[in-house]
Amino acid sequence: MENSLLKPFFSNKEIIECGCDEAGRGCLAGPVVAAAVVLPPDFSHPLLNDSKKLTDKQRRLLRPIIEQNAIAHSVAFVNNEEIDKINILQASFLAMNKAVKALSIKPELLLIDGNRFNNQTEIKFQCIIKGDSLYQSIAAASILAKTYRDDYMLKLHEEYPMYNWKKNMGYPTKQHRQAIVENGISPFHRKTFNLSNQMSLF
Fold first, then answer.
1. What value does the mean pLDDT take over residues 75-95?
2. How confident is the model at residue 197, as a pLDDT?
3. Cβ burial, residue 8 (10 Å; 0-12/13-18/19+)
């Protein structure tokens, strides 16, 4: 059963395309994580979609399927300290570039989820708004980025349970912001972000 919602390729030419996406850009804590995925021409899966449209269980089911079937895949992290140094947009670009450079093969075209990219490779690229809901390789990358980042935040939760990262994964929920007000920040919080948003809390 093929997924009719997602397109297998951007180009009609027989070139090696790589989907790229990131996770954690809007979080208050933790890294931004990017993935790069090259899928084979005949790959399809009925569940494959933008990671945000899937449940955690579906993402966990798809991750090994993607990894086992991909021609090449990689995941890269940029930590909160680096995010504070270069800003979150540039950190997202850096993570995607790191993921692409770590691939076991060199793609001929990068499909970037979003409308901007700072390319640090010699590979041609195409930015695609909402690409993770349009192209299989970008959707696959979104799933790897999201699940690897979630795993990282779940480990951090064991050390810093007061922020409830096992539930919010570092995103700016009201409870997360309140925990920052009550406990201060951790070494994994992004200091350049509006962390406590105290004006809205009091």
1. 98
2. 64
3. middle
